[in-house]
Amino acid sequence: MNLFFGKKQVLKNINIDFPRNQVTSLIGPSGCGKSTLLRSFNRMHDLSPDAKIDGSLKIDDLDIYSKENSVTTLRKKIGMVFQKPNPLPKSIYENLSYGLNIHRFPKNEIPDLIEKALKESYLWDEVKDELKKPAVKLSGGQQQRLCIARTVVLRPEVILMDEPCSALDPISTNKIEELILSLKQNYTIVIVTHNMQQAQRISDKVAFMYLGQLIEHDNCENIFKHPAKDLTRNYVNGHFG
Amino acid sequence: MVKKMGYLLNWVFFLGSTMLVCLILGTILVDIFSKGMSSVSWSFISKFPSDGMTEGGILPAIIGTLMLTLITTLFSVPFGVACAVYLNEYAKPSALTNVIRASIRNLAGIPSIIYGLFGLALFVQSLNLGTSVLSAGLTLGLLSLPYIITTTEEALKRIPNSMREATLALGATQFETVKDVVLPKALPGILTGVILSMSRAAGETAPILFTGVAFYINDITTSPSQEFMALPYHLYMLSTQHQSIEQVRPLAYGTATVLISLVFILNIIAFYIRFKHRSQD
Predict the structure, then answer these.
(1) CB nearest A88 (choices: B92, B160, B166)
(2) Which of B170, B173, B175 to mutate to test the interface with A (most CBs of A within 10 A)?
């Protein structure tokens, strides 16, 4: 696929697939198009009037950009967690019930779904007694896990994460990484990261991007130990970036 | 040395200007309150004028101003907020939206007497609403619209995009995003603008002059189709048009005191909302 902003081509001939129930990391220097690529999977570029995409993106056999599918159902299937925790200005409980309500989940199932999602996100023990508390009162790390729970509660197929740990301290980062490893049993995860150690710790596959192109895409170990391209080797060894 | 003198002069100039502004405001307030407080009493705000305005109170003018402000708000807030939401959330940046924004700014600069004339032509005559509190309220609503649109848009602009992305990424439609996240988050800012524009509208005289205000009515205005008395116009008549001006001067000052207090209360509410909101962030 190709992606343009106005006349400028930001993504060039990207061809990649993400295996089910695995974690794929997108790495590369700032401005190489990782986030842009990630955001094209759940159509976040729909809001930018000058963004244009050609080529095809598919989840299973469903065309992501097909006119027949509504963008709202698509985003339920492909959830997203952002760089900075962005809880809704509501209570912890409402942060999770919000998505369930707009997708019209049956009212009586909502409390159980919320409890399950919070447990899956390792947040339940910390917040179970204060679900009514405003979400913004939580710590940064808790907020980010809440944002993950908010995505998980909708039972998506894919979770996109855009540098989910870059605003967090090492301990919170550690928790999120554990969480990602446990989530991959049920979800396909695509994560953008700047942190090489993180990419090595959590990924099954790694894709290295440079200047809008996909340079190399392979198993985690190959990318870090035996990269096929010099560019990749230089980047993962920290010679530029 | 010369540089230091320069700094000092600047400082004296800025401080002096600030003091001058405060002094002017203070003088006005002291003058009005000192001359007006003596005539303000419970009976002044709860009684009808009597004996050709030389005795009695200003109840109908207070009720009239409150009704007028209410109608103004009911008309201008929904349209103003909707317009700002359209401009900030839906409209794609284009030459057209720039023209719309420029027009709105220009509308804010039109003298209020022009709004009065326009209201007379549109509401009173063309739409056959007659000289009434409804016509006057709608006219003042037009006058408040640009102000409400601008302040609402400013409040919407302060909401970070990450907030919108949060709900959009959950599969919310743009309307749900606006309704559930953007507007509630922007509410304090919007309310501040609304209240300040209400306080401005409450003090306007020119737009209501042609559209429905009356010097004296012997009944409280209860229906939107009636004429009404209003504080600013009452003040104007008492201080310039009355046959025994000297005699009613205390009443004029009393009216000014009541009007200025009303406006002050509205401003304090707006200030409080802003303050409370800031301490939450």
Answers:
(1) B166
(2) B170
pLDDT at B279 over 70: no
- Quote the CA–CA distance of B52 and B31 in Å, as a whole number: 26
Q: Contact B56/B118 with Cβ under 8 angstroms? A: no
Residue B176: its chain A contacts at CB < 8 A? Answer: 102
Considering only residues B39 and B77, tell me which one the structure prediction assigns the higher pLDDT: B77
Average pLDDT over residues A106-131: 90
Domains, in order of start, for chain A: 2-236 (3.40.50.300)
Claim: this prediction has a pTM higher than 0.90: no
**Predicted local confidence at residue B121, as pLDDT:** 92
Nearest CA in chain A to B184: A89
- Does B171 contact A73 at a Cβ distance shorter than 8 Å? yes
pLDDT above 70 for A241: no
Residue tagged 């209003």 (tokens): B230
Residue B171 contacts A, CB cutoff 8 Å? yes
What's the average model confidence in pLDDT over A218-230? Answer: 86
Domains and CATH numbers, chain B: 57-280 (1.10.3720.10)
Of the candidates B168, B176, B185, the beta carbon closest to that of A89 is on B185
